[in-house]
Amino acid sequence: MKQILKITLLLLVPALVQAQAQQATLLGRWDDPAIIGSAAYNNRYNEVWSVAVNGHEYAVLGSTMGTHFIDVTDPENPFQADFVPGKAQGAGIIHRDYKTYKNYIYGVCDEGASSLQVMDVSTLPDSVRLVYNSNQIIVTTHNIFVDTARARLYAFVFGGGQAYGYGGMAVLSLANPEEPTYIRKFNNIQGFSFGHIHDGYVNRDTAFLDAGDAGMCVADFSIPSQPKLLGTLTGYPGQGYNHSGWRSEDGKYYFMADENHGSPVKTVDVQDFEDMQVVDSYNAASTPTQIPHNPLVACNYLYVSYYYDGLQVYDISDPLNVERVLYYDTSTEPDGPSYKGAWGVNPFLPSGNILIADMQNGLFVFKGVGDNCVAGASSSTKEQEYAPSRLAVSPAPSGGYLRVSIGSGEAQQGVMTISDLKGSILYTQTFENSEFDVQVPGNIPPGCYILRTNTAAGTMVRKVVFSR
Length: 468
Hints:
Layout: E1 5-7, E2 10-12, E3 15-16, E4 22-23, E5 26-30, E6 45-53, E7 56-63, E8 66-71, E9 79-85, E10 96-101, E11 104-109, E12 116-120, E13 129-134, E14 143-147, E15 152-159, H1 161-164, E16 166-173, E17 181-186, E18 188-189, E19 192-193, E20 199-203, E21 206-210, E22 216-220, E23 228-233, E24 242-247, E25 253-258, E26 265-269, E27 277-283, E28 291-298, E29 301-307, E30 310-315, E31 323-328, E32 342-346, E33 354-358, E34 362-366, H2 375-381, E35 391-394, E36 401-406, E37 414-419, E38 425-431, E39 435-439, E40 447-455, E41 458-466
Parallel strand pairs: 3-27, 4-31
Antiparallel strand pairs: 1-2, 5-34, 6-7, 7-8, 8-9, 10-11, 11-12, 12-13, 14-15, 15-16, 16-17, 18-19, 20-21, 21-22, 22-23, 24-25, 25-26, 26-27, 28-29, 29-30, 30-31, 32-33, 33-34, 35-36, 36-39, 37-38, 37-40, 40-41
């Protein structure tokens, strides 16, 4: 399918990106048919996030009943390690969303008498501790994002109930991760008015805000109670309901999706916030009912969960020449004008495996692309990447704080380095014990890196992902 998009004197045609795509390798699945589906879309499941802790990898999967922690360390045999009931449950629940800060998962719901939940995962694989479950600040919220570098949570389509009322978005402080505090809500940023912000991406105070029918804007939240408007994108080719997006790791591009049937994904040049432009658009499938949903970026790949068309992965190493490289249709639903199939995707596990949450069919685990972007680095150094039981690094992804644990039998003194994928060492730290903390310098940008521990026993290697 090709849809002609007009931009001033330039015609952009969204390419049907299929040239070198291969079907992804399915490693495992998890589903609980006993979970009730929503009355609106019969979706038992919604968002998926991930966390790696204490040598295990987990999918954080939302459902109409609450939050499921699925152990996917052995991806061929996933199992539920723990479950945190939602404050609101049942057929009236459609949306949940999750993000990570330090060793905590933050969870919200957009229906019913719900709450903000804070879940401590540091005690896994034994259990998850629910340390906060309150509707004092948030009753309902559609999506959230955590600026880990600034310890702030952004709530989109903010429903503060009686305590703070409703707003387009709100900002909370995570200075005490177990006791979030309210800063302010917004429906207007220096003249840019919005009924709501549907979703957003925030890094070091710079917020890319997806404002539905109002378009998209970028704002500076250095002073979170008084944000400054940096730029807007209120008209662009193929514009629809501006749903969500994710910035490239070099900060030059923003990949965004409009939640409309047949709508293409857009690449936006954001190097000049006062003159942001859609420079490319592309569709993954030919079905007129497909909708790109919740795109995000890891290394040089764009991961998108598509209603009706499942997992789609694009190589964005050349942002002006995007190529689709992986796909897998998770949905068994017939194509239609509704919203069914893949809801969320997450590629941030240290193993590189990709998680997909399908609204009707549950969790899918796929083999990743190029070993999560670091296959070249591993082969070029000819170093073995050790199993998490011997060298564990958490959380994953990380906002800049890491806990490193060297398994029993290994030397306890040595040097740790963090290198980029080209082998350049960016940070060095000595250690005296088998467990130690790392506070990564702020000048290391988001992306994939190689962590090495060098001891008398030898060198061990793991990949790490910084999302700040």
